[in-house]
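Researcher: I'd like a candidate sequence for this fold, 333 residues long. If you have to choose between options at a position, lean toward the conservative one.
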């Protein structure tokens, strides 16, 4: 008999209500056992709607519900403490990106998970979507890459809103937040660059007060000769998402749920499209995490995979501060 694992949802904001709670309702291997948020009103509403116990204190939730794992979707500055509480209680964690806000925190969390023998899987959805691993398989067809162009943009109405508007709380701005997905693809497909030179701005809403960048441009270079850039903005519509890698035999471009291989003249050689592009990403992640916990599937997004992301971000922000290129490898803790 298939016994569902018991999941706790920690943080009941946009990502929990928009993705993970619907994901828990649709997945096959887990069920919601309890919820937690520091906002008592949110706890009451969600606990009532899902008929599960609700808590404003994560340690009490872990003690009383004793879940198999927690899905943690809290603001970036609150992540470390919540994961530490889970580790202390021996509860596995499916952690919303980012893994950590800086390389030091990333190293501490990786050690903590290791010592507590808990699994932690970071929810970078593209790693679990059939098209993005397929793109990796097609990459060798373009020859040695010499150009990479990434772009991820959309327009949020208020870049100053909440914790996302404050760099200290968010661990940066759009680069650390939505840019994390683009950095994940870059690191997964091509590895850490040898140099980054970043420029950021928080100028899209001059009347508002915020210091977390709404727009970032990162030039990057590899010793192999590959170079290019990532442009990330949460203040530039329409929504676009694309990573294109060019080599002597063509270009591989991944967009939302589609990959296209073109020859050097731009003619399509082959393409893969998933329809619908994103059926229910969270349900897939939750079921996969349950299989990781059973030992029947590998975890492609554990702490070790995310140390480079923290290093990339630290190098990019160091480059902004010094106005000079930085080597992400020097920021690997
Ligand atoms: N993977 C994706 O595509 C994606 C998309 C959106 C958000 N996210 C991530 O999800 C996380 C949450 O983002 P969001 O948009 O839901 O933010 P949000 O501000 O809408 O919600 C965060 C919630 O966490 C609660 N909270 C704060 N501190 C807490 C604590 N110590 N314990 C329990 N609850 C606490 C807040 O009260 C709030 O309800 C972030 O890490 C964000 O980067 C990921």
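Model: Candidate sequence:
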């Amino acid at each position: 008999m298939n016994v569902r694992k018991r999941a706790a949802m920690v943080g009941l904001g946009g990502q929990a209500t928009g993705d993970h709670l619907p994901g828990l309702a649709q997945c096959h291997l887990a069920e919601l056992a309890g919820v937690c948020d520091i906002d008592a009103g949110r706890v009451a509403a969600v606990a009532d709607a899902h008929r599960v116990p609700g808590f404003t204190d994560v340690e009490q939730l872990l003690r009383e519900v004793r879940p198999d794992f927690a899905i943690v979707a809290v603001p970036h500055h609150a992540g470390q403490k919540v994961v530490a509480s889970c580790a202390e209680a021996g509860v596995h964690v499916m952690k919303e990106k980012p893994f950590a806000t800086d390389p030091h925190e990333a190293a501490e969390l990786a050690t903590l998970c290791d010592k507590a023998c808990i699994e932690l899987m970071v929810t970078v959805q593209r790693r679990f979507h059939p098209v993005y691993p397929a793109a990796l398989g097609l990459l060798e067809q373009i020859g040695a890459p010499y150009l990479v162009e990434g772009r991820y943009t959309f327009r949020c109405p208020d870049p100053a809103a909440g914790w996302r508007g404050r760099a200290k709380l968010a661990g940066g701005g759009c680069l650390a937040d939505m840019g994390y997905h683009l950095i994940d693809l870059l690191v997964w497909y091509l590895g850490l660059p040898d140099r980054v030179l970043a420029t950021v701005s928080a100028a899209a809403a001059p009347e508002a007060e915020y210091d977390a960048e709404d727009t970032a441009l990162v030039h990057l270079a590899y010793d192999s000769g590959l170079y290019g850039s990532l442009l990330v903005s949460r203040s530039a519509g329409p929504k676009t998402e694309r990573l294109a890698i060019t080599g002597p035999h063509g270009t591989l471009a991944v967009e939302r749920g589609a990959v296209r291989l073109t020859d050097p003249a731009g003619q399509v050689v082959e393409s893969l499209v998933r329809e619908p592009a994103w059926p229910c990403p969270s349900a897939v992640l939750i079921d996969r995490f349950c299989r990781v916990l059973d030992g029947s599937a590998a975890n492609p997004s554990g702490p070790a995979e995310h140390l480079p992301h923290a290093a990339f971000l630290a190098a990019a922000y160091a480059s902004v501060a010094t106005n000079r290129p930085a080597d992400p490898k020097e920021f690997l803790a």
